[in-house]
């Protein structure tokens, strides 16, 4: 074949294909088929997208279950070890701290009221010159919501304002603080050491505020007797000012530091505080 003929044939082929396409689209029967095919394709696409959203919902559910499981595991660990063990636990893997706090916030979102907000309002009713220590501050919400100078302590610091330490041993000077706050943070098995540390740093007549999970103080379900707990704190060197049991989820205890310690710490009979274990939702 001559070169000229070959190139003519090449040029003809696309015109032929175009003609066939035009023919098929102008035939009503072909057009119906086409519409059926198009609607079939749409149905298929919808099925695929439904399937995709179903499987992504399933994956989301699985992820939530997994992170809920991780939260419960870390939470149980914190309630069954000492503060220094908890500090090492998070030092080895600080990501566990964020995992814990994501789960904690999720749990808190189901509480009608958050105890930290009651502490915030209590402080707002008092002088902003009071120096505050927040023991086990979490995301330091207290410091962010009051005018007072707040020294925030937790096992891990995700914010420059938070000092990472075991709160049984803070860098605060003795007799330097007006208000010591423990909001759901008496977790370690050595919790009396945290209260002794609060006693050390508080000025005479300084305030000790404790918010704790109510179930830990329900003797009917293995919880401590709140009066025994309160008595032990008084023996450490505090006077009980008031108790608030009105909330369904937590109790609030308010103490003031006495001028002198009543008993040596070894002579105090502390009750055991049972862990607060969250149920799977
Ligand atoms: C249940 S969270 C409460 C956080 C915050 N107070 C609130 O009310 O939102 C308890 C916090 O106490 C901290 N914590 C427990 N034991 C501690 C310890 N020995 N030293 C410092 N922080 C501790 C935990 O890491 C956690 O962030």
From TrEMBL:
It is an enzyme of class 2 (transferase). GO terms for biological process: chromatin organization; methylation; rRNA processing. Residues 1-54 are annotated as: Disordered. The keyword Transcription regulation applies. InterPro entries: RRP8, RRP8_N, SAM-dependent_MTases_sf. Residues 9-21 have a biased composition (Basic residues). It comes from the Eukaryota. Residues 29-43 have a biased composition (Basic and acidic residues). Pfam families: Methyltransf_8. Probable methyltransferase required to silence rDNA. This is Ribosomal RNA-processing protein 8.
């Amino acid at each position: 074949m001559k070169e000229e003929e070959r190139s003519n044939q090449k040029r003809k082929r696309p015109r032929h294909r175009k003609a066939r396409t035009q023919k098929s689209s102008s035939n009503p029967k072909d057009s119906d088929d086409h519409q059926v095919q198009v609607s079939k394709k749409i149905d298929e696409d919808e099925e695929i997208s439904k399937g995709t959203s179903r499987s992504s919902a399933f994956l989301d559910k699985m992820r939530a279950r997994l992170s809920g499981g991780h939260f419960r595991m870390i939470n149980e660990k914190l309630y069954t070890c000492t503060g220094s063990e908890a500090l090492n636990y998070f030092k080895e893997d600080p990501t566990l701290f964020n995992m814990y706090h994501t789960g904690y916030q999720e749990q808190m979102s189901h509480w009608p009221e958050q105890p930290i907000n009651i502490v915030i309002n209590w402080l707002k009713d008092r002088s902003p010159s009071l120096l505050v220590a927040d023991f086990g501050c979490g995301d330091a919400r207290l410091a962010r919501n009051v005018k007072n100078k707040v020294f925030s302590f937790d096992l891990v610091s995700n914010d420059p304002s938070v000092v990472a330490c075991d709160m049984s041993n803070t860098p605060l000077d003795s007799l330097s603080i007006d208000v010591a706050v423990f909001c759901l943070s008496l977790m370690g098995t050595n919790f009396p050491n945290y209260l002794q540390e609060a006693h050390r740093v508080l000025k005479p007549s300084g305030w000790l505020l404790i918010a704790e999970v109510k179930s830990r103080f329900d003797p009917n379900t293995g919880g401590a007797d709140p009066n025994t707990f309160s008595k032990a704190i008084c023996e450490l060197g505090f006077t009980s000012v008031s108790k608030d049991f009105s909330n369904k989820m937590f109790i609030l205890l308010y103490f003031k530091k006495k001028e002198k310690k009543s008993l040596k710490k070894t002579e105090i009979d502390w009750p055991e505080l049972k862990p607060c274990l969250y149920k799977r939702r």
